[in-house]
Fold each of these.
Amino acid sequence: MAKRIDVSGLSAYYGSFRAIEDISMTVEPRSVTAFIGPSGCGKSTFLRTLNRMHEVTPGGRVDGKVMLDDENLYGAGVDPVAVRREVGMVFQRPNPFPTMSVYDNVAAGLRLNGSYKKSELSDVVEKSLKGANLWNEVKDRLNKPGSGLSGGQQQRLCIARAIAVEPKVLLMDEPCSALDPISTLAIEDLIGELKERFTIVIVTHNMQQAARVSDKTAFFNLAAVGQPGKLIEIDDTERIFSNPSVQATEDYISGRFG
Amino acid sequence: MDITTKNADTPPPAPQPTQVEQKRAARGATRPGDRIFLGLSRGSGILLLAIMAAIAIFLTYRATLAISKDDGNFLTTFEWNTNVTPPKFGIAVLAFGTIVSSIVAMVIAVPVAVAIALFLTHYAPRKLSGPIAYVIDLLAAVPSIVYGLWGALILVPNMNGLFGWLNDYLGWTGVFSWEEGAPRSMLTVGILLAIMILPVITNVSREVFRQTPRMNEEAALALGATRWEVIRMSVLPFGRSGVISASMLGLGRALGETMAVATVLSPSFLIETSLLDPGGGTFAQNIAAKFGEANEFGRDALIASGLVLFVITLVVNGAARAIIARRAEYSGANA
């Protein structure tokens, strides 16, 4: 069910500004790939091109190809709405729907996809909350607002919401940067479990996190402010953190950057 | 030393400044600016309450004078004769007309206003939404007598087609039957009021919708929501209480509207079951029509009717607040 992502020659623009240039990479199914790099290097922008969220930004547009198995996400006639149902996303700040209960938050995506019987819906909600390691904490308050949970719980609620629709790929944009260390650990454990079922791509500023959770790590950098960001290298995480093939990567991960 | 620099500029350095400062420190921060502002804001608050109380007392006093001499039942009498003895008057027709015309106005205006606001914030290209919003702002500034003239000269003569159609297809309900009178009825008034309150509801709703947190909209988008689904899942729930507030602003204007109603309606002291048959009246319209020729007692009676309008407005506002508060737990504000 998890799918391979194959990106080739991808550039993304904000108006006339080119934010990322000519990126090509392959992400294997059922693996975790981490994107690291300095702020402004385009890793979040790149992540958002993988589910066509980039073009939601005014002026956002993309050149190049993103293959999900053998379907080009940017092919003619591909509906971005359909793409986003296949490629789920978790954001930097937990963003449960504030007006919905815990239950409705998880069910939101399913309800978009069509009508479900009540029992089916309850089953999926329970399964997704269990999958996000949140069930035990919220099973007695499913009808309370999702915004009443703690930050870490909210983020796991967002993960539950994303996996409830059984996406092929799960994108995470710095999912732990607004969380405390304990909540972060909970999410990292969860990522380890989720990769059994999904292809996961995670952007992080925390290099220990990248080292802990990912199988592969991609390092992005930009030549100077105002220049487009580029993919410097992508390799096995172990290799990136021990013996990267590019000097810039080693400088960055050892803190000698800038 | 830094703090006393100003005072130390004039030699010899006297011990007084430090004493003043000790006093200040003891009482907390009370700089002159703070004291003036505190006095101003507190005074404004008290003044507002005093004015409200004065209005309430004035209205109640004059109203009591009139109602105590009313030969009919003030709440249920279908006539307004204050120049005869004993005087006989009641607000039944006015209350009915005011509420019905406002309901008609709200039913028409709120959905249209919300739709316009959504169009401006989520569908229209920016180049278009700016000018449209500006024009709507201008509409809100048109004096109500101008709307009234437009209503009487343009709207009323052109209502025959709609009225005939409603009578043909919905006349059997009784609410939309029409007996070929001039279309100076509650429906016409409601339509005119709807046009008048549209800009204010649109503008406030637009402001609210525009403040929908980007991350809530993206949450819906990332789940594979279409534009309409994004609006339904994040924009409308977030803007709900704001739209209610906006509608209340509009309703307040509709309830109290005077000149536009007076120029369009052909008043009578009858309750028409059909929205299309001419007749009826509203509080404000009745006051405007009768105040000029009313004697002292007649004016008191009109004031009594004004008091009822005041109470209705309060009740409506209270109800709106209750609706908002009931779902405060789920409001977008605590996200």
Amino acid sequence: MAERKIVDGRGSFCPGPLMELIVALKNSQVGDELEVLSTDKGSANDIPEWVKKVGHAYLSTTESEGVWHILVRKTK
Amino acid sequence: MKILIIGGGMAGTILANNLARRLPQELKSGKAQITMLSASDKHMYQPGLLYLAVGRTTPDELYRDQASLLEPSIQFHVDPVEHFELDQQRVITQSGKTFGYDILVIATGSRMYPEGIPGLSEHAETFYTEASALKMFKRLQSFTGGKVVVTVGVPHKCPMAPLEITFMLHDYFKDRGLSDKVQLHYTYPINRVHSLENVAKWAAPEMDRLGITYDTFFNLKEVDGANQVVRSEEGVDIPYDLLISIPAHKGMEVLEKNQLGQNGWLPTHRTKLTLEGYDNVYVCGDTTNIPISKAGSTAHFEADTLGENIAAIVKMGVPVREYDGKVFCFIEAGKDRATYAMFNYQTPPDPKAPTKAVHWFKMAYNKLYWVSARGLL
């Protein structure tokens, strides 16, 4: 059954939110949705770019009080 | 108060000595007791493996007897834990002994996991163990030219290792007069050559200057050893003659067997360093799941925080400070130049141009480490 997971990359300069997402996707099932939390505004561009390139589904980005919430779904 | 530390690596050793120095009277009177359980009677300086892989140190330089590093007031046993019974506040060791505790620190470290990528173990060289670093050096010695590809798995221990080994390989081949016969090609999982933006801004032009080519957004999917090709999740194939790997890492298997955390990483509060669900269990070093670098300095600064806090708990019943995410990493930029990156949860690093002075300070620190491990530096 698909899950919704939080990938908390706030305050992470290294390895950073995208690396955290890459690891989390490896440990997820097809269909799982992952919500990345990032305090780095660069994530709003970097994460969708990689997600599309690798072939997962990019769903949305929202920003609230300096935290970007980027939602993706594992598709393969 | 019984303080039990699991793991005799950098985190556990610095913490145990830090605590012993803060609690001399309590240890003497029996009010406090520090016990360390480790899988080995030896202590390895793991950052030295990078130098072993390029023939710049020897294995004996990397080891000390663990007992020789510990304050005499610490009870040390080579008897790794097999069962964690956290609700009963006890662990059971390989020899069958039971150790109870009031405060537990889990500092069991991490291990490379090349087995997660098909073909990687069989076809790549790496340097995260003594045996693999020696094997890599012997392979380098017999290499006379071709394309050398560096791949990077996540998560991995030592965030600077991918850059450092690449720059050190550049100088290694240059010294052997092979610069015009070797093509160094670097890959990285995200869209720049390092996760730290300011480090990437320095490293990419440095690679351009040295003639090192690179692919970003390259997450290794498999190694086709028969055709000597690495293939990425992003659909890119790169041929190689010599493959150097920074493999993905996992936490220790014993944690997985005890169904603690995921992949051996324990869910850890990012400032208190407590294990999720337990106020009297702390996690230190690589073992945490905190989204910061798995590095010796991280272990060191976490151990400093825990040393202060656990000593305060013994003396006053409460901890006194929070871990701020501090990390300090040297970055070797070749055989004789280095820089560094220092950052925490709030402040990104601002690395300077590499200098010979920082390189020699790193060389000195490789020896000074044994003073750090003793809790003196």
